[in-house]
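Q: For a teaching handout, I want to show students what a protein-ligand complex looks like in token form. Below are the inputs, and the small molecule is 2-(butylsulfanyl)adenosine. Please produce the holo structure.
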Amino acid sequence: MSALEKAPETVRAQVLALRQAIEHHNHLYYVLDAPQASDAEYDRLMLQLQALEAQYPDLVVPESPTQRVGAAPLAAFESVRHARPMRSLGNAFSEEDVLAFDKRVSSVLRDAGLLRPDEPVEYVAEFKFDGLAIGVRYEHGVLAQAATRGDGRVGENVTANIRTLRSVPLKLRGDYPAVLEVRGEVLINRADFEHLNEVQRTHGDKLFVNPRNAAAGSLRQLDPRVTAQRPLRFFGYGWGEIIGARSRAAPSEQPDLFKPPVPAGDSDNVGAPCATHAQMLDWFESMGVAVNHNRRIVKGAAGLLEFYADVGRDRAQLPFGIDGVVYKVNSLAAQEVLGYVARAPRFALAHKFPAQEETTILVGIDVQVGRTGAITPVARLKPVFVGGVTVTNATLHNEDEIRRKDVRVGDTVIVRRAGDVIPEVVGPVVELRPEGATLFVMPTSCPVCGSAIRRLEDEAVSRCTGGLFCAAQRKQSLIHAAGRKALDIEGLGEKLVDQLVDSGRIKSLADLFLLRVEDLILYDRMGRKSAENLVQALDKARHPGLGRLLFALGIRHVGETTARDLARHFGSLGAVMEADEEALLSVNDVGPVVAHSIRQFFDEAHNRDVIHALEAAGLKPELESGPEGQALAGKTLVLTGTMPTLTRDEATRMILSAGGKVSGSVSKKTAYVVAGEEAGSKLTKARDLGVPVLDEEGLLALLGRQG
Ligand code: IVH
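A: Here is the structure, written as tokens, with 2-(butylsulfanyl)adenosine included.
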């Protein structure tokens, strides 16, 4: 078949139909976020189109969806002069800033006769996307050029890369003008960023510090094939040059005081066919441009601040990062009157959230010893205001993490604190690394007790081997035991624990229960009243639920839930202490590692001593009751065979939460044997011993549940 063969009309029509179908699915998927076709279906359309275009090259046009990744790698990006400058926004960091903005806007608009004396200004409030600004120019509806913001007048030509974004249409639909430059933000979803970094890591490539950085790095690739692999997305929020648009707003839809803008010089709104910013965004959307729907038309400063608060509350749930919200006067005529000061518009304002990332200097790296001896490197930072608080320390997790991030003492580092999470060091700004920045070396002995620090082969953490000999571990164990989910001892704070341990008054958990008011008032900031309150709290803590006590002991791998399951299964502290690994394995969710750890804990003489001392100090645990009450309290059941609907696990769980126990062997003490299909010797033994036998229905009835 000749490459010059001219395509027959039928093929031409078929190609057009395929392109339309593909664009339709792109639009549904990337712009409307509501995909209809499966990946396979989409791929099939694409393959058909590719085959036809290969057969009839004269049909290939730049805006064909097969041509997204067309261009060869560049040597460098060309410069592009923007038809209209790409400006930035003034920033507000406080409520006062926003009130002042609204006051300024109102006063200008009133003076211009565009606002009645008591009328609030109408604004559009939208997200401030945390990506990078791009202008995409369409000529006669076809994507002609895309450029970065650069210095606002001249940017970089990134057309070949922007063409690979499927959320950017190669061809506009509907009622497009002769020239339209859509401006907006290119960004990457947080989950996609994480995934991208995973890929980078497995390839041994450089990691990106945050989604913004990843979006920028992906867009500034000289090879568009690389950009095509990156899940970049685009949201339009503004415009540059517009030529030849037909007016869209019927006079009745125009705002009350709308006056057609006076085309003054190079105003951004010259050529805009709508009366308001909101209408412009609707128009963009009708042409197939992706716009974000989380915008709100509001009135006055109160409306702005409400939007800010609402978005601030929900922003952690968004798939992508935003660093604030943007307020824009809705009426374009009003925008015109307000105009620009310096590089920023007077009609718009960015209201920033407290930055979640800042840079500062890494002054040193200390290590902290945790409850289980885990050594955590902690960054000592030059104080920096981030995420709404001043941060001086941040976790560095572990040794490998420091290596991987390549942070060195002396580095300028990026510190992140999002929401309530612990501040962390994201990475260094390598370009700013001073000479002589030093690498971190894990100490070989514990800075608190001097014991050796060891790192097990398959573990990421290093540990102090001092155990409860180490004051740091002792303190952390006490703080853990006093916690809300453990013994819940109110008034035993970190500061007091420090003093009690440092003074030698308390060596183990049991010593805590021997404290008297007279002992306590000797300590700093301990009045008689707080001492009495603490002693009272200790009294209350003498009768914890057995699950809470087991959790409070701080056995490795025994979390709150496992502790509760152990309590229900064994019923008493003595029974847990005596249980062998096999017996432990029959507890819900207890595997070999956990069973071994529990056994090891109770085999340790020191731990048994502490427990006996606790008992001597009057500590007496109580069995907690499960949500189903105590229908089976104190009763032991044995399960055998296959039940019609319940799995063995489900049945066990139900019995435990009704206060019962499940055992593997039948004895005279067995309350019931629950037998299913193909029950074996246990059923025979039950019959021999005269133990009552139930089926699934019988068990459910016993538990007060219907089958
Ligand atoms: S409008 C003349 N709207 O913020 C106004 N900008 O500080 C031009 N940005 O460079 C910008 N979300 O990269 C506008 N909804 C939004 C925005 C937004 C993010 C960025 C944009 C711009 C910077 C201005």
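A: Two things your students might notice: Confidence is low (pLDDT under 50) at residues 254-264. Residues 9-31 form the longest helix (23 residues).
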